[in-house]
Design brief:
The complex is a heterodimer.
Chain A: H1 5-12, E1 21-23, H2 27-51, H3 66-94, H4 110-123, H5 138-167, H6 172-184, H7 187-218, H8 226-229, E2 231-233
Antiparallel strand pairs in A: 1-2
Helix pairs in contact in A: 2-3, 3-5, 5-6, 5-7
Chain B: H1 8-14, H2 19-32, H3 39-49, E1 54-59, H4 65-70, H5 78-85, E2 87-91, H6 99-112, E3 118-122, H7 128-131, H8 141-150, E4 154-158, H9 159-163, H10 180-183, E5 189-192, H11 199-212, H12 225-228, H13 239-244, H14 254-258, H15 276-279, E6 315-316, E7 323-324, H16 325-353, H17 356-359
Helix pairs in contact in B: 2-3
Classes of the chains: A mainly alpha, B alpha/beta.
Domain NADH:ubiquinone oxidoreductase-like 20kDa subunit (chain B): 63-208
GO biological process, one term (chain B): anaerobic respiration
Cofactor (chain B): [3Fe-4S] cluster; [4Fe-4S] cluster
Chain lengths: 239, 367
């Protein structure tokens, strides 16, 4: 038990498995993922504190600015989320083909549909083994496009529309997002949509983390490390 | 042939008001409309040269709170000024004539001022049962409204009833009460929501129409921007307490006495567009928040159907029993959380019952 490199070399003797690896997520995608994740956490916490404020602060109002700072943090994180989304959509245009998976759904591809049902069976414990995918499996692909991206857009649009209510008519936020308030009917409806969107995003995050950890253990490919170093390693060389 | 109309100035001089007082009024009105001092002479000139606009004021399905508010206008004073400024030819609530005599005035005014008058509508027409639920003067109100709108140059929808439907249009809206702009679609319409609208806002809109001879700038909901472009919350004198994080936590607590923000008590100030926090009510004496009660959002579309007046998060009726967005979210989170726990448990069972070969490579070196 020396835990040194010589012992490690001995342990590795006789191992000849082939473990194919593919570079999937380029640096901008990975950086965006983690910044975006942080922004979502900050937005959820500060957003909840805006909807349900902390117990009252004592003393003169002149010397306190608690809600002000919480709201500032929320708005700043909102800008990060919005700017990140623009950057990510740009990268979908210029990045590798995996960067485009977030904005495409190959619904005309029969093999894709076959894979979708197969993977549903895998999650329902009906299929013994997961199929291999260099990018998202079709089930997570659908969730990424229809739940995550849709919800992200909803949150950015409703969020900036709510922000535009404060910046007022004539501001660029109002010019760009004022129509969302009109579409929602009134400000209370807009708040309701923003709250519902937060819950959808929260549920997505919970399922996303659960499946990422589960598949990292149970499937035949890496998941978590892929979003750190961009490389997807397959644990066997069978098809 | 349209009749020759007296100017406002001629009328008030005839009533014995001095020119000095007239000019004072012009300055006050310019200020209340948010115009600079340079506009006072323009208002004076308009009052001296433009003919008084005939206004016909109809009442549909409503409670007359708009009229009650209107007659309390302080700047300008309704009794002294507005009733002279405009030519209010028909308003069945405050006119002396009644019955057939009153209805005759309506028909006469419509012919005499065709294309010139402004139609002010308080309340809305219920459309169910061919309009039978509102039947003033022995005729469905919706028919009168359409007839009168045809000869109007513009329509003012007074209050939340005419603008949005208000309480009579609250779900399930049995009489199918419908806002004016959904019935009359071919005339310029100004919505002046509120239950009731602020008196000075009402007279301000009328003054603007008279002074400039056109509609004020309107927002996407046809509301005059000068009074409805900001939320109560944006101009609330309790706003510093909100930013500081100082809230009334219960109606009878120390913070309520200190006048802290009513956000936690369900104040709708942050979601309500109106001028209450700047113009206030009853000659600027007070407004709901100043008296210690949150705003109920009476100038917002469908404010009766958004759940409790004391809850900021709206109810959502689509889920059967009334729930708000966060209650729905918590329920969904519990279901998903439970499902994930069960799935994870099943995954662990699958994993430990697998043969080493099925688990694949990971345990190779043990096998």
């Amino acid at each position: 038990m020396s835990f040194d490199s010589r012992e490690s070399a001995l342990e590795l003797q006789g191992h000849r498995e082939v473990r194919p690896s593919v570079y999937v997520y380029e640096a901008p995608v990975r950086i965006w993922h983690w910044i975006n994740a942080l922004a979502i956490v900050v937005l959820t916490v500060t957003g909840t504190l805006i909807a349900y404020p902390l117990p009252s602060v004592s003393g003169e109002a002149t010397f306190a600015f608690l809600m002000g700072y919480i709201r500032f943090t929320h708005f700043a994180a909102g800008y990060v989320l919005g700017a990140g989304l623009i950057g990510r959509l740009y990268w979908a245009l210029v990045g590798n083909h995996h960067a485009r998976q977030l904005v495409t759904l190959p619904i005309h591809n029969r093999q894709w549909w076959n894979d979708l049902f197969y993977m549903a069976g895998w999650y329902l414990f009906l299929n013994r083994e997961a199929r291999k995918f260099t990018g998202h499996n079709p089930l997570s692909h659908v969730a990424m496009v229809l739940v995550f991206l849709t919800c992200l857009l909803l949150m950015v649009f409703t969020g900036f529309a709510l922000y535009a209510e404060g910046t007022g008519m004539g501001s660029w936020q109002h010019d760009l997002f004022g129509w969302v308030l009109t579409l929602a009917g009134n400000s209370q409806n807009l708040h309701t949509l923003h709250h519902l969107g937060m819950w959808v995003m929260g549920l997505f995050v919970v399922i996303h983390i659960y499946t990422a950890v589960r598949e990292d253990i149970m499937s035949r490919q890496t998941l978590i490390s892929t979003m750190v170093n961009g490389i997807r390693i397959f644990k066997d060389d069978r098809p | 042939m349209p009749a020759k109309l007296e100017t406002f100035y001629e009328v008030i001089r005839r009533q014995g008001i001095s020119r000095r007082n007239f000019l004072k009024f012009c300055s006050l009105t310019a200020a209340s409309l948010g115009l600079g001092p340079a506009f006072a002479p323009k208002i004076a000139e308009a009052m001296e040269t433009k003919p008084r606009i005939p206004v016909l004021w109809l009442h549909g399905l409503e409670c007359t709170c708009c009229t009650e508010s209107f007659v309390r206008s302080a700047h300008p004073l309704v009794s002294d000024v507005v009733l002279s400024m405009i030519s209010l030819d028909y308003d069945d609530t405050i006119m002396a004539a009644a019955g057939h005599q009153a209805e005759a005035i309506l028909t006469e005014a419509r012919e005499k001022y065709h294309g010139q008058y402004i139609l002010a509508v308080e309340g809305n027409p219920p459309l169910a049962g061919d309009g039978m639920y509102c039947f003033p003067g022995g005729r469905p109100f919706v028919d009168t409204l359409k007839d009168m709108a045809a000869g109007a140059q513009a329509i003012i929808s007074w209050g939340s009833c005419a603008s949005y439907g208000c309480v009579q249009a609250a779900k399930p809206n049995p009489t199918q009460a419908t806002p004016v702009h959904k019935v009359i679609t071919d005339k310029p319409i100004i919505n002046v929501p509120g239950c009731p609208p602020i008196a000075e806002v009402m007279t301000g809109v009328v003054t603007y129409l008279l002074t400039f001879g056109r509609l004020p700038e309107l927002d996407s909901q046809k509301r005059p921007k000068m009074f409805y472009s900001q939320r109560i919350h944006d101009k609330c004198y309790r706003r510093p307490h909100f930013d500081a994080g100082q809230f009334v936590e219960a109606w009878d607590d120390e913070n309520a006495k200190k006048g802290y923000c009513l956000y936690k008590m369900g104040c709708k100030g942050p979601t309500t567009y109106n001028a209450c926090s700047s113009i206030r009510w009853n000659e600027g004496v007070s407004f709901p928040i100043q008296s210690g009660h949150g705003c109920i959002g009476c100038s917002e579309d469908g404010f009766w159907d958004k759940g409790s007046f004391y809850d900021r998060v709206s109810g959502i009726k689509q889920f059967g029993i009334e729930k708000n967005a966060d209650q729905v979210g918590i329920a969904a989170a519990s279901v998903v959380g439970g499902a994930i726990a069960a799935h994870a448990a099943a995954s662990v069972v699958k994993r430990i019952t697998q043969s080493p070969e099925e688990r694949g490579h990971i345990d190779d070196h043990h096998g």
